[in-house]
Prior knowledge:
A: 102 residues; SH3 type barrels; four-stranded antiparallel barrel; elongated; B: 462 residues
Amino acid sequence: MPRKDDWGLVHRVVLRPEERTASIPEETKKVPFEMWVKGRLKTDAELGQEVTVVTRTGREVRGTLVEVNPTYTHSFGDFVPEILTIGDTVRQMLFGGPADAS
Amino acid sequence: MHPDSYQAVLSRKAEIMKAAVGMDFAQFESGSIAFDYEGMLAATGYSLEDVIEIQRGFSVGNTPLLELRNLTELARKLAPPGKGARIFVKDEAANPSGSFKVRRAATSVHHARRQGYPGVVTATSGNYGAAVASCCAMAGLRCIVIQECYDSRRTGQPEIIEKARKCEALGAEVVQLSVGPELFYTFLRTLEETGYFNASLYTAYGIVGIETLGYEIARQFRERLGRDPDAVVCTNAGGGNLTGTARGLLKAGCQAQVIAASVNLKGLHMASDTSFNRKSFTTGHTGFGMPFSTWPDRSDVPRSAARPLRYMDRYVTVNQGEVFYMTEVLASLEGLEKGPAGNTSLAAAFALAQEMDRDQCLVVQETEYTGAGKHLNAQLSFARRNGIEVRFGDPEEEVPGQSIILPEHPRQIRARKVDLDHMRRSLIRNSLASVDHPPTEADLEFLAQETRTDKKFVMEAL
C-alpha cells in the first residue's frame, strides 16, 4: 500500500470538455484538459484514490493517485535500418569503399 | 464567476504578468499599434557586457565554433563549379543544459534572484525547461516547468518526455498537461499561486540573453578567420533565437545575412489532440515559425521581445525527412551526434551552401544535446508506430502527419523559399486587426520597422 511520503503521480481534470476554450479544433474540444504532477503523498493512500501530494517546490496538489514511484521508460525506439543506409551512402560518396546497394 | 474559473483567471492576465515579470508593459504602449520596442529591451537594465558577465556566472556561452569540413566537401561535390561555401556550426550543446536556450534562462534567472523572487515558472515543452532548471539549480531558486506533453490517450512525444526527465534531474517540478492552449490558464494560476517569476521565452530578459550568441559568432570568426561570416542560419520557431542572434551580430558590427529556417509542418493544427503525435518535431517548425513571425504578440507576455521579421533577410523551410537525414550525416561525417530539432538550420545550410561561392562562409548557430527520446532513431521509430510512413524517396512527396521521406540522395535536400513579403503583409494586417481605428502616423513608422520595409510598403499592404 502506498505510504505517506512515498513519491507518487497524481492526475486531475483541469477543465471538462464543456469548459474548454472556443478556439480549438473539434477533436480537442471533445476531450478534457488534463494535468499530471508528481509529489510526496501527504497520507497513506490507495491507487485510484483522491490524494494530496507535496511537489518538489513545496506546493500541495490534489488529484487521483495513478502511480507510485513513477519512472521513465522512453528509449531510442525500435531499430530503424534506414539510418545505417544514410551513413553508408554519404561515407561512400566522400571516402569511397563499400556502399549500401540503395 | 468563480475566481479560479478559466474566464476569471484570464481576465487577471495583465496584473498577474506585471507581478510575475516585474515590468509594467503599459509604459511602452502608445495606445495604438506602435509600442517602444527598443525601450522595452533597454528597460532590462542589462547591457551586452552585463549579460556576458551574468552568463559567465552560470558557465554559459563561449561554446566552440566548429568547421564542418566533410559536410562542406559533400556540399561541394553536389554544387555547381565554384560553389559550395564553408559550413561552420556553433556547438551550443556544449552549454550546461545542452542547448542555446540557457542563454535566455541565465538572464531571467539572474534577474529573478536579484529581484528576490523565491522561484521561477516557465511554460515550455522544449529545451528551455532544462535551461531554466539548470540555472535555478545554480541560483538556488525553485523551478516549475509547465509542459504540453500528452494527447488524450496519454501518449507523449518521446522528445517531450525526455525533456521532462531532464528538468526533474535538475531539480525542477514538472507539470504535464494534455494538448491545448489552456496551458496558459494553468500557467497563470501557477504564477498567481506561487508568486514566482515568469521566465517567459519572450520577455526582453530572454532576448538580450541570446544577443551574446550572435556577438560570439562574430568575435570567434574574426579571431579565427580574420573576417565576418557571410550568412548565419537560425532555426525559427517563436522568433527569439533569430531576433537575439541578429541583434548580437549587429552589436558586433557584423553585416552577415540572417536566414531563418523552419521544418515544414504545413497542414498540422498545433492545438489538435489527434495531430499532436503525428508531428516528429516539437519545435523549430512552421507551426510556430509562421504565426509567431506574423503576430509576435500571441506569446505569453503582453509584448513579445522576439520580433523576427525585423531582422530576417530570408526564410526557408526544410522537410522532416531532410533534417533527420542531415542529423545522421553529421554523425557519420563529422563525428558529432546531436539532437534532430537543432539540426533544422543545418539541413537548410547544407542546401544554401551550394548556392554560395566557395570563398564564402556560413554559420549554423546551434546544436542541441541528444539522448533517449531525443534522437533520430527514437523519433523515426515513434513516427512509424503512430502510422506515419517512413521511407526513402523524393522529399517533395513528404506530407506532414502522413509521411517522412528520407532523401534517396543528398542532392535532393532543398531549402525552399518562403515569400517574406507575404509574411510582412500578414503582420501588417494582423496588427491592424488588433485595434479598432485607422493606423496613426507613428503606427505606420512602427510597422515599417516591424517588417524591415518602408512606409510605402506598409501603405500598399493596407
